[in-house]
Structure formats: structure tokens, C-alpha cells
Write a structure and sequence with these properties.
This protein is mainly β. It has two domains: 145 residues, no CATH class; 98 residues, Immunoglobulin-like (Sandwich). It has one helix and 18 strands. The chain is elongated and about 80 Å long.
């Protein structure tokens, strides 16, 4: 089931309870959204977003740390509210809280692998004021089980066959995606379009017939694209294509009606 972003934020706020000024630990920090998307070069990415905790004052936050599948993959400043998980490998700096000290550490960002569902969590490293007035540092626990997201590669189209009143679109099933939408438009930016979907495809390839757009003409150019997503995701993909819905899209192809 997909949770709208505003509802996820409300759930996050409702789950932030007590302890901001004392020695008790705040509750786990929740990811607001983790959305599959594509980089400018079409490489797979996931955009993770979160809200600042209500029970830790902004002045006491040291940094946020992002986890994928239980492994730390990155860190942001105390003002950070988002992180992009990518297919690139590398190192990053983070702080480890231990009593009255913060210890600089180096972590490894492992490459994001598209096609499989993974889960994201966010941890807050913060300064704590004890009842005695002493200062110490602590980390929030990780929310369990985390927010499910399926990184995807860009879909593709195998063939488009024009017919009298419709087009027959064939496309391969994408690893990790089980729901698809086919769109036709007389415009390259798909400002107006005909839609067929969502259609579930669990193996092999998809085959969808879709009516010609109302504003297309016989002999004219029609643009075709296929959108894909996973129904296992907590939040829908973040499209990077013009006038797109909650899908990641193939590159558009052209056919003559």
C-alpha cells in the first residue's frame, strides 16, 4: 500500500515522543519517503527524505545518518533533510557518539543495486543534557523495519505496432517492477495523452493495446512511452519525465499513426 507523502509526514510527527530536554532517549527517527528515481544519465537512484524530529531541538542535532538494509551508507549535516542513494561507490565521513565525545569515522557507500526491494532508515546523532547539567552525545535507534523501496533501471519498449484505432505496445518486464502504464501523445512533452494502465506484469513481457490519442491524426507522429513501478514500495517513484505520473518512464519512441 502506498502512503501519501503528507500522511507519512503526519505519522512521523505523531511518532516523535518526549525526552527532548532530559536524559531519556527520543524515539526512532522515521523516514518520511524513499522514492525510486533516475539520475540525469538514467542511472538508478533513490531519494530519501525525512522531517526534523520534534523532540530534539535543532541546536542539539549533530547530523543525520542514512541506512540501507541495515548498513550505514551516508551522512548529512544537521540541516540536511534528504539524501540520494546512487549506484556509485565511495567513502563518507560521519560522527560516532560515545558518552561525552564524538569520534570522526569513515564509512563506505556501497553501490545501489536496482531490481530488488530494500529498506531505508535514518538515525539522528544529537547532544544530550543530563539532569546533572553534564553534556553527552547519543544516537536515536533505527525505526524497524524501515521504508521499503525498489530501485529500478529505465524501462524500455520492444515494439509498437500501429493498428486502425489503437497501437499494440510490447515491452519487457523490468526486474523489480510489477505494475506498468502505457501512454500515447501527439506532443513530445505528453501534455495531453491517452493512458492504459496500471497493468500488472509478473513475468516475461507486457503486451498492451491503447487507443490513439484524441488529438492525433492519421499519418501524424505519435509519441509512446512505458512507465514502471513496484507495488511493494511504500511511496511511489519520483518521475523525472515531463507530465509524468507516479512511474519511471522509458525513453519516448515515435510512430506514425
Amino acid at each position: 500500500m502506498r502512503v501519501p507523502l503528507f500522511l507519512a509526514l503526519a505519522l512521523f510527527i505523531a511518532g516523535c515522543g518526549g525526552g527532548g530536554g532530559g536524559s531519556s532517549d527520543p524515539g526512532a527517527s522515521s523516514v518520511v519517503a524513499a522514492r525510486a528515481t533516475l539520475a540525469s544519465d538514467s542511472a538508478s537512484e533513490v531519494l530519501i527524505q525525512w522531517a526534523a524530529p520534534l523532540d530534539i531541538s535543532a541546536q542539539r542535532i549533530v547530523e543525520y545518518q542514512v541506512f540501507r538494509g541495515g548498513d550505514r551508507i551516508g551522512a548529512t549535516s544537521k540541516d540536511g533533510r534528504s539524501f540520494r542513494d546512487t549506484t556509485s561507490e565511495g567513502t563518507f565521513a560521519y560522527q560516532e557518539a560515545s558518552g561525552t565525545t564524538l569520534t570522526p569515522r569513515t564509512g563506505n557507500h556501497t553501490a545501489l543495486r536496482p531490481g530488488g526491494t530494500t529498506r531505508y532508515q535514518v538515525r539522528v546523532v544529537f547532544q544530550r543534557i543530563e539532569p546533572s547539567g553534564a553534556t553527552s552525545y547519543a544516537e536515536t535507534s533505527l525505526n524497524s523495519p524501515g521504508v521499503a523501496t525498489t530501485p529500478l533501471v529505465r524501462p524500455s519498449i520492444a515494439s509498437v505496432t500501429p493498428q486502425a484505432t489503437e497501437a499494440l505496445v510490447r515491452f519487457p518486464k523490468l526486474d523489480g517492477a510489477d505494475q506498468y502504464q502505457v501512454e500515447l501523445s501527439a506532443f513530445s512533452d505528453f501534455r495531453s495523452k491517452s493512458i492504459r494502465g496500471p497493468v500488472v506484469v509478473t513475468s516475461g513481457e507486457g503486451l498492451i493495446t491503447i487507443p490513439w490519442p484524441a488529438d492525433s491524426t492519421s499519418g501524424g507522429t505519435v509519441y509512446v512511452r512505458v512507465g514502471a513501478r513496484s507495488t511493494a514500495d511504500a511511496t511511489p517513484p519520483l518521475t523525472t519525465d515531463p507530465n509524468g505520473d507516479d512511474y519511471l518512464y522509458s525513453n519516448a519512441q515515435t510512430i506514425v499513426r
